[in-house]
Amino acid sequence: MPSSHGGDKPDETLDVVGIGNAIVDVFAQADDSLLDKNGLIKGTMALIDADRARALYAQMGQAVEVSGGSVANSMAGVASLGGRAAYIGKVAADQLGEVFSHDLRTVGVAFDTRPLVGGAPTARCLVMVTSDAQRTLNTFLGACIELGPNDIDEALIKRSKVTYLEGYLWDPPAAKEAFLKASRIAQKAGRKTALSLSDPFCVQRHRTEFLELVERHVDILFANEHEICALYQVERLEDAMAAVRGRCEVAAITLSDKGSVVLVGDETFAIAVEPVSRVLDTTGAGDLYAAGFLYGYARGRAPGHCGRLGAICAAEVISHYGARPECALDELVARKLRD
Amino acid sequence: MPSSHGGDKPDETLDVVGIGNAIVDVFAQADDSLLDKNGLIKGTMALIDADRARALYAQMGQAVEVSGGSVANSMAGVASLGGRAAYIGKVAADQLGEVFSHDLRTVGVAFDTRPLVGGAPTARCLVMVTSDAQRTLNTFLGACIELGPNDIDEALIKRSKVTYLEGYLWDPPAAKEAFLKASRIAQKAGRKTALSLSDPFCVQRHRTEFLELVERHVDILFANEHEICALYQVERLEDAMAAVRGRCEVAAITLSDKGSVVLVGDETFAIAVEPVSRVLDTTGAGDLYAAGFLYGYARGRAPGHCGRLGAICAAEVISHYGARPECALDELVARKLRD
Known about the structure:
2 copies of one chain form a homodimer. Chain A has helices at about 30-35, 50-60, 70-80, 95-105, 155-160, 175-190, 200-205, 205-215, 225-230, 235-245, 285-300, 305-320, 330-339, and strands spanning about 15-20, 25-30, 45-50, 65, 85-90, 110, 125-130, 135-140, 160-165, 190-195, 220-225, 250-255, 260-265, 265-270. The first copy, chain A, has a 9-stranded mixed β-sheet. By secondary structure, the first copy, chain A, is an alpha/beta fold. The interface between A and B is medium-sized, with 29 and 29 residues.
């Protein structure tokens, strides 16, 4: 059983440290009329303030609370694969913050960012699930707004093979400075920086900065087809591939139920989708793909193998509700690779 | 969409007002070894203090938070049946208290008990789910300890056809006074009092008081086979039936997957179990049986019909995870009674 502060030991090399928005998800079933009445666009993520969060929550049905946050989900995945993972993100010193911290530490992810005291509450994402199984997300960033450069533990970044960041960090104002600080520390220490583009709307919000980021700071880029096309303002996958090739060491582009392609230098690795008997909930597919890929990368695996690990982890998470693995991924991978 | 304070209107008659321990459930998968290490008895509910709650939570895996509380689950059921329901219970003025309040009000249950400020946090029940689908419960009563006679809204009791209480209320010290106050108000107003025996261990803890209660205050008694046998210290169902008959107006005894028997005066009504294609999680079966029964009773239905309503509601809640209905029970009942 891991200790309550995760499995971190100060003198050991970590596989991945993730930096992201620390969020608790609030899931409820919803009718289309609720979305319409509130001007929500189905299947998208919108940022909302505290008042709007209160107003939407009051209209939602009975709900279930589950820890989320894209990079936090990925770190839970790395730990489940047997990797050494840490997380940096800002919760408040409140009950949802305790829930978030518990759920990471108990799976073995080191998480020691100081919680915010006396400010905004822990962030939450209101997830409305309509009968067509689509999810419409409304995120109140709360305490995440306060994540800043002072929260970046230099020693932690230095001893992590990869520092992994989410594009969503560009939404709260101070987090991008934290992001850049972390990336510079990693670069100077000869470590790698990875980035997920997070969401096509997030790409639209921060496109110019993301382009520069990919060019100057990012070694490993994760994006789905929509995100990479939004970044380069092209319509076809091949044009996006042409645009991103050579901009960073590795670009892994996920293609939903059609697998993924991994670009390394002049080479392109096509990764088949991992078959699943039943897709229950696609939430977390990208997060767990990144988990598998990064774990493989940190352990020196070839790009094709990294992609395969990503595909296996993504397949596990879409076969049940929720965005974090429900079985021991190290055992699952061992079984799959043996087959 | 109901208002954020439920569907209560001060001048209307209510079907049921429920009084209970207001609890948020924290579910996580667990190994048998976790139970053994902590001396937990599988399938039972134990009361724990704050320190023990912290220690157990730290050892639990990633969890899901869902509003619970036996009588609160029942009130959600009554509202879903189209009944007018209210709830009295003590949460703290904290995030889990907000979650609990939201989840009741949004389904139309009036809930206006003043939350506790500056004391213990909202109660939680740590639910460890082992691979054999058994649930082992550890309840930290938190703010529930402060529920007392002052929380009993006299007007609310007077205008409710039935006041429904849980045996678990005998665990926090002041709640029993609240219980007795409510029961006396109901009696004086010509209203009915219903009681659930809650749990065989709860019966053992408070047996003498429960016997007197049934004799003097309770009109409608809910118990399962184990609870009623524990109350009368007998081993066979028929002996318990003989012991309880005539002690209160109605005794509804649930027999798990073998249906239920309802005793009214000299008559015994046998209620068949409602068939379900798949039992996923039996949590809440008793709570929803009571919901269906009480709704029927408040609407003047015959005992056999009340039992059938209970069976239909219980069947719904065991066909999915969680202890509250996931579909509109009024529509489900209309469909079932038509078939």
